[in-house]
Write a structure and sequence with these properties.
This protein starts with a strand and ends with a helix. The chain has a four-stranded antiparallel beta sheet with strand order 2-1-3-4, covered by helices on one side. A hairpin with a 4-residue loop joins strand 1 and strand 2. It is globular, with a radius of gyration of 13 Å. The protein contains two helices and four strands; from the N terminus they run E-E-H-E-E-H. It has 93 residues and is α+β, with helices and mostly antiparallel strands. Helix 1 packs across helix 2.
Length: 93
Amino acid sequence: MRVKIERAGGFAGIEQTVAVYDTDDLPERQAAKVYDALAAIEFAAARGELGEVGADLMIYRITVGDGSGKVYKVPDEGSRLAGPLSVLVRPSG
């Protein structure tokens, strides 16, 4: 599964790709951590718990799959999803 993480927003409106990878290329244990992190984000999204996304706030835009895949927007600051985000940004860490 292809995963792309971008950091965007803020007053300057920056957009930066911070990670792009395919879970098929990761060792099994690391791929499992990515799947768990994505499940936590998907669960939070389904419950409406991703947090506030505003025009001047930094967010992580997580695209799962190809161009028509799912996209999640997770706020950078004070997110309860900091753990899953750190796994997705550094899957081999």
